[in-house]
């Protein structure tokens, strides 16, 4: 695995983090209403899994099988706790984990009851997220360029899921993998092999040829 030693966009656009110096360069916090939104969702969907991605750790106020699998796959050492025990400040995003076949109902409920002050995004078939209002991967990408003084640099963005599309469009070179959603493919300048075929090597080869 490559060790990232440069600033990067994290939490689907809510922050820019400098991994080399272990510090946030920019961040945007979700609305204070997010706690009430979570209570609404937990009351309506008691079997939902939830992560609150805080600037210092990951809090897990609700566990289900989808969330357990996610924590194991991503090696997330979450703090399983009560919602009321989570600090009020420092929330960068909220992730709801739910089975894919039940996700449309959950997403509709969140869109209807949790819209004020948030941006909502389906980041995987079984993950629905609350981000700060106006925040997206594309917005975080622009903040990354700003805080690193890189606005005039040649930029490349790659993606596969619809929440990547705006970022792919905004780069000098937008790349989609072959198994990306159609919206991402239509936003890209180049389509490469799938995300299971070492896409980073393919992207580097394209850049070298330019």
Automatic annotation (TrEMBL):
InterPro entries registered for this protein in UniProt: HAD-like_sf, HAD_sf
Database matches in SUPFAM superfamilies: HAD-like
Keyword Lipid metabolism included in the entry's annotation: no
A cellular component term, taken from the record's GO annotations: cytosol
GO MF entry, a single one: magnesium ion binding
Pfam family, one: Hydrolase_3
Transmembrane segments: none
Keyword annotations of the record: Hydrolase
PANTHER family: HAD SUPERFAMILY HYDROLASE-LIKE, TYPE 3, PHOSPHOSERINE PHOSPHATASE
Protein name, UniProt field: HAD-superfamily hydrolase, subfamily IIB
Biological classification of the source: unclassified sequences, metagenomes, organismal metagenomes
